[in-house]
């Protein structure tokens, strides 16, 4: 499944480069929930409009204890008579990825938000983890998706326990 997903994303990347299409991604909603408030406190999880078609995502989560073992379950869904699975359903070892940059799917996504976040060092993570005024810059958004509404469901697993989730809804428009 992982290999198939990687090949599909690489094909989309090649088609985008050749077609010269401009893809615009606009955030429409963000939901965050902490299941263990003694480990993670969600201070902020909201969208902020900069312009009519430019919306920034702000997430501020405080980890109250050092997190050495962080896994990220990622589910990517497309809206079609309800949200249906689309392309990606995987789990990523976040600590290992930050250290080795060894996941091709994460290599497409991480550069999008790296400059807007303080999540840029190796484990352990403790204290405020911030994503501030994040929006996708068209020059970095290299993968083309069909027009439509999508959601990325992120389940953060600390010490093998689902600790909090961040669900990000967005619309993709190709011009």
UniProtKB/TrEMBL annotation:
Transmembrane segments: none annotated. It comes from the Eukaryota. Keywords: Signal. The keyword Signal applies. InterPro entries: DUF1091. The keyword Signal applies. Residues 1-21 form the signal peptide. Pfam families: DUF1091 (PF06477). SMART domains: DM8. PANTHER family: DAEDALUS ON 3-RELATED, DAEDALUS ON 3-RELATED-RELATED. This is (Mediterranean fruit fly) hypothetical protein.
């Amino acid at each position: 499944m992982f290999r198939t997903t990687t090949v599909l994303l690489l094909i989309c990347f090649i088609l985008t480069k050749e077609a010269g299409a401009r893809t615009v991604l606009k955030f429409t909603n963000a939901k965050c929930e902490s299941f263990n408030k003694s480990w993670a406190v969600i201070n902020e999880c909201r969208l902020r409009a900069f312009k009519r078609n430019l919306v920034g995502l702000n997430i501020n989560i405080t980890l109250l204890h050092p997190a050495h073992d962080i896994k990220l379950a990622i589910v990517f869904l497309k809206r079609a008579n309800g949200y249906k699975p689309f392309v990606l359903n995987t789990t990523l070892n976040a600590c290992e990825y930050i250290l080795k940059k060894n996941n091709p799917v994460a290599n497409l996504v991480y550069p999008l938000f790296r400059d807007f976040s303080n999540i840029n060092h190796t484990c352990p993570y403790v204290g405020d983890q911030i994503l501030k005024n994040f929006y996708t810059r068209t020059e970095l958004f290299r993968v083309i998706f069909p027009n439509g509404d999508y959601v990325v469901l992120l389940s953060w697993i600390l010490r093998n326990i689902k600790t909090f989730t961040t669900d990000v809804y967005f619309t993709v428009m190709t011009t």
